[in-house]
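Dear colleague,

Thank you for sharing your sequence with our group. We've completed the structure prediction you requested, and as agreed, I am returning the results in plain text so they can be pasted directly into your records. Please verify that the sequence below matches your submission; if there's any discrepancy, let me know and we will rerun it promptly.
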Amino acid sequence: MLIWGRFSMNIGRLIRSEKSPRMDALVDFLLNFYGPMPYLIVFGILLACGLGIPVPEDITLVVGGVLAYYGLCDVWLMIVVCLAGVLVGDSLVFWLGAKYGRKLTKKWFFHQVLPDDRLDAVKGKFKKYGNKLIFAGRFMPGLRAPIFFSAGV
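Please find the predicted structure tokens below.
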């Protein structure tokens, strides 16, 4: 309980303080982007998240909201850019699995990780629990890209 008390005191002090150097530095960094650059950065990070880079999308979405709050971006355009980044990233992984999945599973490294019997078992799971598996996989960092890729195979 004492540890939690110290932690909550530090968080409260950070929130209540007039000037927080860390928060000021973060906001100053975010406010240095103008024009189409904030949209491209947010879209690129969300696309990379969809491709399997383990960066939480939530932080990127919050950054997009902060940029819109400070007037550097249009709110509605940022919403469209964020939605497009998430959908394009996930769809691209699925498409890569559908287009090149069978060829890649024949390669040595992928065949070691996903042999034919395991691939058949995964197909059975997708036929039985497809929608639930995709929905659950969407919220599992690190497993999302392989699940979407194998769904495309």
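Summary note from our side: DSSP finds eight helices and no strands in the chain.

Kind regards,
the structure core
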